[in-house]
Sequence to fold (524 residues):
Amino acid sequence: MLHLIGRKALDILFGLGDYALFTGRSFYAVMHSKRIWRRFIRSIYEQGTVCLPVILIVGLFTGLVLGLQGYHILNRFGSVGLLGSMVSLSLVREMAPVLAGLMLIGQSGSALAAELGIQRNSEQIVALETMGVESHGYLITPRLIAALLVYPFQTALFVVIGFWGGSLSGSLLLGVDSGVYWSSIQRAIESRDLRECFIKAAVFGIMSVSICAYQGFHADRNHSDTGARAVSAATTRAVVMSSIMVLVADYVVSSFFI
Amino acid sequence: MIASSTEPPLLKVDQLAKSFGERPVLEGVDLSIPRGSVFTVLGPSGTGKSVFLKCLAGVMQQDSGMISFEGRPLVATDKETLTDFRKRCSFLFQNNALFDSLSALENVSLPLEQTTNLDSHEIQRRSMDALSQLELESFRDRFPSQMSGGMQKRLALARAIVTRPELVLFDEPTAGLDPLRRNAVFSMIVKYQRRFNFTALIVTHDVPEALVASNRVALLNGGKICFEGTPDDFSSSLDPVVTGYRDSTDALRESLASIKGQAQHI
Fold:
C-alpha cells in the first residue's frame, strides 16, 4: 500500500517537473526560434478570431443572467441602484477571466491538444526533430506568446459585452435607470480590479495553452491507449486538467488581491 | 560514387544494443556505411530494422553502443556534433510524416526556413528546385492529403533532399506498395542518389529490388548483422541464415505467383 502511494506520488512529481520543463523550454525557445512571426499570427487567429463568437455569446448571456439575478436579489434590499456595481465587479474580478478561459480551453485548447496528438501519432513531431528543428519552438512557443495577448483581449471583450448584457436585462427589461446603471459601473471599478482581471487572464492563458500543448505533445506516453484513442484521451485530459487548473489558479490569484 | 575502401566510413555503428523492457531487439549491431553508397539493411519484419534506423537518426536512444559520423561519436552531451549531423542527414519515414496542414511547397521549405539563415527568395528558389527535380512543381499548392501515395513519397524525398544532405535514411520506403510501385520507388532512390550524390541507407524486406538498387547489403537477424557484402555475395552466399531468408522470400514469391495463377485460372 505504502509502496503504491509512494509510486503515485513520484509519478505526480515527475509529471509536474516534466510539465514545468516543457513550459520553460517552450518559452526559452523564443530566443532561437526562426521565422516565428507567421506562426504567431496564425496562433492569434486560432485562439482569437475563431473563438470570438463563443466569447461574445457567452459574455452577453452571462451579463443578461447577472442583470436578471442581480436585480431580483438587490430588489429585496432596496438597492437596485447598485446593479451596475454588482454586474461589473462580478464580471471583472471573477466571471470574465474564468468563463473566457474555460471557453477558450473548450474551443482552442482542445483543438491544440488534438492537433499536436495527431502530429505526434503520425510522426510529424519526430520528423521535425530529425530535421534539426526545435519542435517546442516551432509548435508551442508562438501559441504561448499568442495566449499572453489573446486571453486578456478576449476577457476584455467578455467584460464589455457582459456590461451590455447586464444593461439589457437590468435597464431595458427590468426598468433600472440606464444612467444609474452605467454610473454605478464607473464608480465600482478600480484599477486594481482591472489589474486582477488581466493578470488572471494572462495566467489562465499560459496555463491552459501549456497544459493542452503538453498533453497533445505527449499523447503517446499513455501506454494504455494508442492511435486515435490516445489522441482522444490526451484531448480529454487536456480539457479536464486545464479547466481544473484554471479554477485552482483563480483561487490562488484571487487570494493575492483580496 | 562510392568511397574507396581505405577512406573512413561516413557512418559507423559499433555494438549497438536496444531493448524494450525485457525484450532485446538489437544485440550488438556492427556496421560501416561507405560514403556515396546505396546501402540496404534487409531482414524479416519485426527484427528491429526501423528501431536500428531510428537509433541512427537520434529519434530513439540506444541502450549501449556507439554511432560515429565521419569518425566523430554521436553522443547526447555533444550538442554541436549532433546538430551538425542532423543538418547533414535526412530521414525518410515509412509513412512519409508530411505536415498535413502545410502545402507541398511549405513542406519542402520548412527545413530551410527553420534550420538555415537563407533569405525568403533563396528558400523559395531551392524549394521549387527540389519540387521540380521530383516533378512536383505543378502541385506546389496542394496539400499532402490531396496527393497520391507515390506523389507523397516523392514529396517526402523532396523535403529530405532540399537541405542537400550527405546521408539519407530510408525507413521501409516501399512498405505497403505493390511490386510496380516498389520498383518505381527504388528506381527513384537510385536516380536521385546519383543526381545528388548522397549516401543512402535503406531498411527494407524487399530483397529483389534491394539487390538491384544497392551497392552493399546487410542482413539483420536475431538482433545482429549476420551478413554484409555486395548484392552478388548475398545472392551466392551459402550461409544458412542468408539462404533461409533469401529462400523464404523466393518461396513466398513463388507461392504468391501460384495463387495469382490460380486466381487467373478461376
Q: What stands out?
A: Residues 240-265 of chain B form the longest helix (26 residues). The two ends of chain B are 49 Å apart (CA to CA). Chain B is about 45% helix and 25% strand. Residues 11-265 of chain B form a domain with the Rossmann fold fold (CATH 3.40.50.300).
